[in-house]
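Researcher: Here's the sequence for the chain we discussed earlier.
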Amino acid sequence: MAETAAAPPPAKAAAPVKPRNPSGLADLLVITLYIDLAVDAVNTVADTLDLRFVSQVDPETPASFGGSLPGEGWVSVFQGLSALAQTLIFVVCGFLCLKWIYRMSLNAHSLAPDMKISPAWGVGWFFVPFASLWKPFQGVRESWQVSASAGHDWQVQPVPPLLRWWWGLWLASNIIGNVSLRLQMNATSAGEVAISGALSLLQDIANVPLDVLFIFVVRRLTALQLGALSQHVFD
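Model: Thanks. This is the structure I predict for it:
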């Protein structure tokens, strides 16, 4: 008599997502955003002074990436120090931003497991060429929709203009900065340095409202999520 095949073991149910209180992380991120805002303001002054100097130099004067023009002196030093400070705070702020986005998505998944963007990919899409133009926004948008609706019919929850303005400025700032850096690296004359400097200044100016908008996004989304999860016990 043939043996009856043993039934496969039942699939192990996925562990429920446990929300974590985002308040402390959000407060720390907002503090770094205020610091970044101040550094961007200083860098705007530095780039303005440098552009003013370069515009007075003969456009055909030879120049190279990382070098100083004759007579640039303290202006070049000031700009270099402000750019270094901007880079350092960008790294810290960027890390906290990605951690906050992950936390928001993780908590939102506890309310709506059917979200399309996972917490890991909510961060990972920032590093994927071309897809980084819209996929990270989709992840933050879903976290907002779920938090605003407490997970009920979240797909039809409207997205506020605040979120779209923030992402639009983020894209504009990054595109301008990328073009400016490429021009600066390939510059061979003062005239070309002036063009890249003008774009760098434009990015600094755009970064100021970008920081302000993101502070509003962080505070508002965190508040919405705390309200939606008010009945949950945080880990």
